[in-house]
Structures
1.
Amino acid sequence: MPREARDSRRAIFEAAAAEFAARGFSATGVDRIARRAGVNKAMIYYHFGSKQRLYRDIVREIVLAIRTRTRAIAAGDAGPGRKVSSFIEAFVSEAQARPHMPPIMMREVAEGGRHLDAGTLRVIAGVFESLLAILKEGRRTGAFIRVHPLLMYFTIVGPTMMFFGSGPIRSAILSLAAVGFPEVGPELLIEHLRKMAVRTLTPSPHGAGTPARAGAGPRSRSRSATTSSGDQA
Amino acid sequence: MPREARDSRRAIFEAAAAEFAARGFSATGVDRIARRAGVNKAMIYYHFGSKQRLYRDIVREIVLAIRTRTRAIAAGDAGPGRKVSSFIEAFVSEAQARPHMPPIMMREVAEGGRHLDAGTLRVIAGVFESLLAILKEGRRTGAFIRVHPLLMYFTIVGPTMMFFGSGPIRSAILSLAAVGFPEVGPELLIEHLRKMAVRTLTPSPHGAGTPARAGAGPRSRSRSATTSSGDQA
DNA sequence: GTCTATAAATAGATAGAC
DNA sequence: GTCTATCTATTTATAGAC
């Protein structure tokens, strides 16, 4: 497997990841990928067979890296509190290390995983299962109060993907001089999420697990939010 | 402006919103929209001029509805704590009332607002500005501790969009029998976010604003997360 | 306002020389 | 492994009859 002037397969892989992240699967043309990679379009089909297989390879690599880390954390011997903290740190640092991940995953969520294969979907499920296992362990040992695992998952994953994926739209808005977004770094995000997770998961030191909502009681509302929207009841 | 058998403009508008939400801007064909709306394809161009203008109209209507509500909340005379709570409730209930909103907005964030006009981007900025004003007011009155506004915004908006936008991918994963997702309703989400916001924003009753991280200290890590990935510093 | 027919451009993918 | 040339299908959009 010689690697001359420049490994064309790798060049395609990285150019495609950047294009898919910036424009989405169907808006990205193979011509564009080839031009960006500096290779001939036919090489994409030589190496990957189709645009979809190329895309799937990219997504799978991304989610595999995340699941590998979160699984190791869940299976470790640290306490549940530290495991949650490590989960957050792992997820954020993966998002930071692979700038293409957040936009691609946001789109894939929005699209219902339509472009993915069953194996990759299972890997994605595995990331959630890692957190689920940690939360269950915390329940067993009494370290955590009862929380909804999916909501906890979304409260870690959602802000992280929004934060790292929103760079371009923040720039676009900034150029309109409407708002000045204060700068944020990954360390601040990790710190924020850790605090949030700890405060949400650990029993309140001054009372029951569900403290009174200080000054944030429910308001009377005019709009009706009666019907549940389908499957999430 | 007579509305006979069925207003074709409205039919197109709603069919397009559903298609754009499910497949994204470029993966959605005008043929598909027309078929779903039960009208002729030429009617799309008669009413909207182009696929992009149709898309922009849809997005603008969505974000305008949100900004109208959040602005009114920020300008109201309730206390900051209640305003944050109302902001959360407004955002969640808009996401629930318009099922097309979360996927469309997730994609638009991922794409950097590429398909949007400046006016719509400004409206999006206005939603954030509503929360920003509330947070500043809370700082002035001493009700809130110092938090990063953008992180707070993402921690409300991110989980909400993930929650409502992830229905299809959860179904896809569920069909693989890998994980059973526990059911969640919007009320639980609102409750969860409210608690999260209150605990993050209000000064700790038992000490300084930044409590010790109970069992969640930083771990030594082997992976390096040194370089900042470009524009998000 | 609504339809048919079609223009014009671009997409993903392949054949085959080298 | 890499390139040129091309096939085929699909896409946005429009012209023009009714």
Note: Residues 55-204 of chain B form a domain with the Tetracycline Repressor; domain 2 fold (CATH 1.10.357.10).
2.
Amino acid sequence: MSRRVTMADVAREAGVSLMTVSRALNDKDGISDATRERIQEVIVRLGYRPSSIARGLVTKRTGTIGLVVPDNSNPYFSEVARGVEHTAYANNYSVFLCNTEEDPEREKAVLHSLAEKYIDGLVLCSSRLTEEDLRDCLKDFSAQVLLNRLFTSSSATMVLAHDEQGARLAIQHLLERGHRLIGNLAGPERSYGGLMRVQGYAGALYDAGLSYEPDWIQHCAPTVDASQQAAAELLTRHPELTALVCFNDLVAVGALKACRNLGIAVPKDLAIVGFDDIPLASLVTPALTTIHVQRYEMGRLAGETLMRQIKGEKERSVHLLPVTLMIRDSAP
Amino acid sequence: MSRRVTMADVAREAGVSLMTVSRALNDKDGISDATRERIQEVIVRLGYRPSSIARGLVTKRTGTIGLVVPDNSNPYFSEVARGVEHTAYANNYSVFLCNTEEDPEREKAVLHSLAEKYIDGLVLCSSRLTEEDLRDCLKDFSAQVLLNRLFTSSSATMVLAHDEQGARLAIQHLLERGHRLIGNLAGPERSYGGLMRVQGYAGALYDAGLSYEPDWIQHCAPTVDASQQAAAELLTRHPELTALVCFNDLVAVGALKACRNLGIAVPKDLAIVGFDDIPLASLVTPALTTIHVQRYEMGRLAGETLMRQIKGEKERSVHLLPVTLMIRDSAP
DNA sequence: CTGAAAGCGCTAACAC
DNA sequence: GTGTTAGCGCTTTCAG
């Protein structure tokens, strides 16, 4: 590829000045229809592409945003990402996708790299950073939206699923079906969402005048394998449990597998409720009763919110997305 | 956020010239350790971030690549994306992620937008464009890797899964188990991978001295719902079939559901083989026998290949990734 | 070892 | 309607 064609080439070829080309490009007025068309023709003929790099240098706007997620191959985040990307595209923005792989060092690294790219805004998902590190990193960005994490010591805009409410819905559903001994496969110990979900579990039981054994709560990594083992331990330790709420659907599937091994029939012997409603949830057997989280909508909302922020509008700081109970076969 | 700190600020504060700061930044020599450290200190103190925009304008290298996929929420592509992003990160590159949503117009639009961003390279997945449109779009990029599509009239580098071989493995497995009447839920009619998979199906049967009815091949959209309906039609039309190979795992899951409705026992009455081995495959009941495609590795390889291309190395043009048969319960 | 000058491709501000 | 000048923040080239 030889030298790329520049605005100067177009100007020369069309017999006008740089400014006139620039105006034609940006649909500004103060230019006759004739020249506009002539320039347009030259642009097409030469295959000219304006350089958003050069433009960005002068306008201080790059037309790009950053999206940082723990792992794009996790269906939860890939769906969020699609929502963000969709909104960005609709607003003529491009998005940098970065995976942190749950590694705080890597998270800092990608945030620094995004800062050097002079992105116009940032959507940050579920950060592993301490509040201090986070504050330090975020100061490089003028527009930002935090997902799934409440960041108390900042005025950053946040978009959250109503995790606590979701857990409450799950418990209420089980209580209505007569369950009183409800275990909790609670996922990672230090996840903000996980914490809220445990809070909803405890709160719903408390409100019903019931209590739970701390030992009914078992943490585990949010994967099928880790959960399968954790579920086996929990259910062996507490065979009296008649129901299990799970951190998310993957964990619930692990529990399902554990039950199959232990000869526990779901939902007859044990009811299981998941969380998130990823596509998998409706495809396993028995299909999972779970809490539906609007992941695409979450990404979309984060994107829209960010776009408004970039345009300089004031934003309210917390958006709480409602969740709903999906009743399927694992806890009918 | 006030004005961002620039190299000039650092230079002034450190009492040196712009050039010296630039040299310190880029680890060039011709600068004493003392000044280097002093500059480093000032950089940290001021929170200076070099502008990759300004740098890009002069160096013609932006440190960014583009990744275009049909749909990032599809587990196939989200995994490919993770592979690409991982390699990019390891090479200090950032990735623009774009979804085309299978829309050729949108695909052209994102490619144009990426061209204006002056990305250093492009990974393009499974294009819907005609060869002519594609050639036209690709000429804006100096380094490029095409995924899952053979582009005959170009010297572009390509990374492909061995789709035909995969289909052959599936058929051979079924033949070994005595199946002779094998249907094909063949997915979208105009997908390159789909075409190759049908070719493998036909080829393997032909090589075994067997034939198949054209009517045993039924196309459908690659979703669970579309496939469920298509499978029901096919199996009703041809109850003699004893096995079914499917375009991908989602289609296979649709077939599984159709069988459940029709009272067909899998694998006893009908064996089913999927394709891709997405996480879902091992989690449904019965677990899917399927063809494993190394999606992450595909992304990684595409990324590595692109990086070498960017560095100016000559690349061989076609990388064919091997696939393997995963025997599970749907066709033991 | 360090600095001054020029320029990357574009737009903002002001002429004509 | 259109052109001229200056400059965005950096690196390259050439002097010292």
Note: Chain B touches chain A through 54 residues (CB under 8 Å).
